[in-house]
Write a structure and sequence with these properties.
Blueprint: H1 2-34, E1 42-45, E2 53-56, E3 66-70, E4 76-77, E5 83-88, E6 97-102, E7 105-106, E8 108-114, E9 120-125, E10 132-141, E11 147-156, E12 165-166, E13 172-177, E14 182-183, E15 186-189, E16 193-199, E17 208-209, E18 231-236, E19 240-245, E20 254-259
Parallel strand pairs: 4-11, 12-15, 13-16, 15-20
Antiparallel strand pairs: 1-2, 3-5, 5-9, 6-7, 6-10, 8-9, 10-11, 13-14, 16-18, 17-19, 19-20
Amino acid sequence: MESNQANKKSNLVFWLIVVAIILLIGGVVLFFKSTPSQSGKTVIINEGQPEAAVITFSSPKKTAHYESNTPAHGSVLAGAPVNIVLDFNFDLAPGSEISIKKDGKESGVGATIIDDNKLAMRKNMDPNAPNGLYTVQYRACWADGSCHDGSFQFAINKAIANDFLDMRGKKEIVIDMVNISFESQNVIISRGTKVTWVNKDGVIHTVNSDAHPAHTYYLPQNSRNLKKGDTFSITFDQAGIYPYHCTPHANRMIGTVLVQ
């Protein structure tokens, strides 16, 4: 009798393990099917021009404690980033560094900077960086002395800016936040222009620098919660591209300010 009960318990444990393995495998498969990847993505820059080129993104390499990077891997930008930022969930230590290269030539400017909270590191980029494919190679170091290498890629295609709303030459512009969107979504402005966002919706909005939810790309471009009628303003003095989003509607409300 006791032997039969033991056998039943053993069989039950066996089948529970089998079911758990099946669910685990199914979850992994579903994850990879539902997680978008830019690896192998091919884009054309300067299309229709003599200097047109086809570029293909390779696979990114992520280190331990990696969270996000801006620009995102596989992104194609209308202008040069003001800086490259990587976010981690563990304190960075000296020795951490970033390199930004196109065709083997360094496009980063100055030293790699570790933020005061030690959870992000950044490096400025040449605002005159030309069109093309850029590979970011980085080394993340921890307090125990270990360092790990990673990489990702992005591209610049300045022809995209032709579709932006040209607001250059104005001292101040206003971007309305209405119908769960930024109007206008993508704008070009001159250095020294003041941009004011106005919430005209009956729900909370924010203006937050990429990436979500780190918001580290350009720290001054992070507002409080904005109720209907609230405003947020910032003056852009540095040339480059500034991607941003609304945190409560991060998948829908995205925008770009290009400063020239």
